[in-house]
Structure formats: C-alpha cells, structure tokens
Amino acid sequence: MTARPALRVIEGRSGRPQMDAALEFLGLGIGLTLVLTWLGRLPSWFHDLGRFQILFALAFAFYGLALWRLDRYARLPRVGWVVFGVALAARMALVATPPSLSLDLYRYVWEGKVLLHGMNPYHLGPADPALSSLRDGVIWPQVNHPELAAIYPPLALLSYAALAAVSSTVIAFKLWGVLCDLAVVAVLLRWAQRRGASPARVIAYAWNPLVLIEYSGSGHNDPLAMLGLAVALMLADSRPGRSALAFAGGALVKLGPLVALPFLWRRWPWGARAVALVALAVGLASYWALTRGPESGLTAYLGSWRNNEFGFHMLERGLGSFAAARAAALAAVLMALAWAWLRRWPLERATRLGIRLALLVGPVVHPWYLGWELMFQPLAISAPWIVFSLTVVLNYGMLRTPLEGRSFHLPYAARGLEYGIPLAVFGLSLVLRRVRAWRAARALRH
Asked: What is the mean pLDDT of residues 322-339?
C-alpha cells in the first residue's frame, strides 16, 4: 500500500498587514485634509500668522509621517488613486480662503481685466490714470506694486485675460490654479508609472503643505509653468514635438523652465528643436521688447528686488554690490549647468541642479519658488529640501504678524534658523550615508 505524502502547510500572504498599511495611509491623508480644512477657515493667514504657522506645522507632521513610512505604502494596490484623491480634497479645502500671505493673485486678475479691455498691461501700471475706469472695491485695493507695469511673460497674461473673460473673480482664478496643480500631480503619477516607481512617492509633491498653501491657498501661477516643464521632461524621448511645445508654453508663463533647455536640446531631434526655437524666439523677443519701459516690472525685479535671500547675501557682502552679486550668482548657475551638460547628467537630475542652485544663490527666494524643486521630489526624495519647505514659512514672520506688514524681511540672524535647520539635516544625511557605506564595506570584508 502506497504511503500518503506528508501534509504541508502552504503559507499565504496575509492580507491583514496590507489592510493596516492602507488604513494608515488613508488616515494620514484624511488627517492632512482636516488640518488644511481648519487652516482654510482662518479669516486671514497673514493677520493670524501664529495660528497659521502652528496649523501648518501640524499638517507637515501628517505629511512627514507619510513620507517616513513611504516604503510601507509603496506596494498598496491602487495607491495612486488615494494619492490623487487626497491631493484633490486638500486643495479644495483651501480654494475659498482669501489670499493674504501674498497678494499676487489680485494682480493676475487685474492684468487679465486690463488686457481684456484692450489695453496694454506692459505699458500701463495699475496706478496709471488711464486705467481708472477698471478700479473696483475688491480687486484694485489689493493690487501690489501699482506703480509698476506687468512683469509676467505673454502666455501668463493671455491666460489671465482668458480667465477674466469667464469670471474676473479671485475664486475663478484660484480654481484654475488648482486645476493646473492637479494636472502636475497627474503628470507626476504618470511619470512614476513610466519609470516603474510606486505612485505613492508622488505624495512628496502632491501632499506637501507648502505646495498646498502657496498654490491652492495663495493662488500663485507657478503650476501652469511647472506643468509645461514636467510634460516636456516626461515626453522628451517618446514625444519630442509635444515635449518642445510644452516646454515653450511653460517658459512663456514663467522663465523657470529655461534651465532645462540645454539638456532637452540634446535629447530632441531637429524638428522638435525648431518648434521650441521658433516659439521661444517669438515669445521671449516680444516679452523683452514690451518690458523695456521706465515703469517695467521686469526691470525692477532684475535690478533691485530681493527677498529671503541667503547665499546671495553672502555673495553681496563679499563682492560689495547687488549687481556684482547678481552676476556671480548667474555665473554660478550657468557653470553648474555646463558642468552637468559636459558630464551628461540625466535630464531630470541636471534640471533639478539648476533649480536648486538658483534658489540657493538667487536674490529672491519666495516660499512658493520651492514648488519647482519639490516637483522633483518623487524622483528622488531629499530630506534637506523637504525640511526647507517647512522652515521657509518663517519668511512671513515668526509666529506673529510683523509690524512692517508685507514689506517685512526676516532678519538675517533668523534666516540662519530658516536655512540652518535644512543645512544641519543635509550634514546629518552625509554622515549617515558615510556610516552606512562603512558598515556595508565592513560586512563585505567579513
């Protein structure tokens, strides 16, 4: 009689740990959204700065915990839908919040109205008597720098005019900004999929509280330009013509995408290069010609504006003048880009280097500028830059509304805290990397 085979216990993967991870991830997203909902109910972030910054730090705690536990969530099924769902809910929680930390959004609405009425915002500043008929009791009193004409590139102004034709209200412009920012999130999710990475990594941008308060809360227009850059980078090889069009579109909303041009140029075929070259030549030449007046916002920005600078301050102290420091900062960025180009760095890494260095040595480091670096976080998460996105809100004041109002500049000693904490994290990360390398080498020897 044949003996029966021994019974074996077949070990299956239990669904319980995965369910726990899914509930934890969803709970962190809900917690983040609830804190942002609370933030959105504050009447004025600027005039209640202490409460705003405390709630911002609390939102950052949920975000930071989700990043810290990211490996636990990376293999969850349909995690991309949760990432996007929380991103949508968190942004919508801030749409109704009136901008107060920055009043740039009111300027967007104003310039859209000016262009819609057939007048030239590059030649007529808001204070010009020729525009007196457009002044109202809602938008006009909040317009910043009324003595200066428009600063934004032509595609930005055209988008403002198109929005104003639909509705010249703050809420309409904010909704458009949210749509653009959600489009960035969608592109990052698609990009992660193409690279074989987990969609969960996209929370590094999509759930970042600084991104949420600056683009959905204050309504800054950066996401439209960032969208063009993200699409251009993602499609550089597979759809070079579309990549070139997206790149040119982004650069004609804000100039930030231009740091990627040398690296995209190398990847594009000649047809895509021609598309980008023609679009940029026409758009940027028009922009330069239109912003040459005595009241030019672009001239004022390039010639004297500064805010929240740190590396630039060191350059200025060493070289003795704003102009010399600006030239040195530009040279540093160009040399870094040239070095990355010669070393044939990957497209995304080289572009990110240019953006980072521009932030570190530039004379203007508004908090919302960090969104350009944070867009690359899903590709490679960097703890120092994540921490900087927390400390940078000190630029608005330290737990109380500054007496100087919106002309406040954080004292350089306090900027040591704003920049010093991320630098300390950077130093610690270098030490830990060395320790891990030493341990790995020691393990191999034994």
From this structure: 96
Per the listing, tokens 């003048």 go with 321
Write out pLDDT tens, residues 408-442: 888 888 898 999 999 999 999 999 888 888 887 77
Q: What is the pLDDT of residues 77-104, one digit of tens each?
A: 999 999 999 999 999 999 999 999 999 9
Residues contacting 397, CB < 8 A, separation 6+? 49, 408, 410
Tokens of 192: 């992660």
- Please calculate the CA angle 47-421-388 and round it to the nearest 5 degrees: 60
Q: Cα separation of 364 and 407, whole Å? A: 14
Cβ neighbours of residue 187 closer than 8 Å, sequence gap 6 or more = 227, 230, 231, 234
- This model's pTM is above 0.85: yes
More confident of the two residues 334 and 7: 334
**With contact defined as beta carbons under 8 Å apart, do 258 and 285 qualify?**
no
d(CA 446, CA 443): 5
Determine contact, residues 27/19, Cβ cutoff 8 Å. Answer: no
CB 116 within 8 A of CB 164: yes
Q: Is 395:418 a contact under the CB 8 Å cutoff? A: yes
C-alpha triplet 354, 355, 356: angle, nearest 5°: 95
Contact (CB, 8 A) for 87 and 207 = yes
10 pLDDT higher than 80: no
The answer to whether 200 touches 85, Cβ cutoff 8 Å, is no
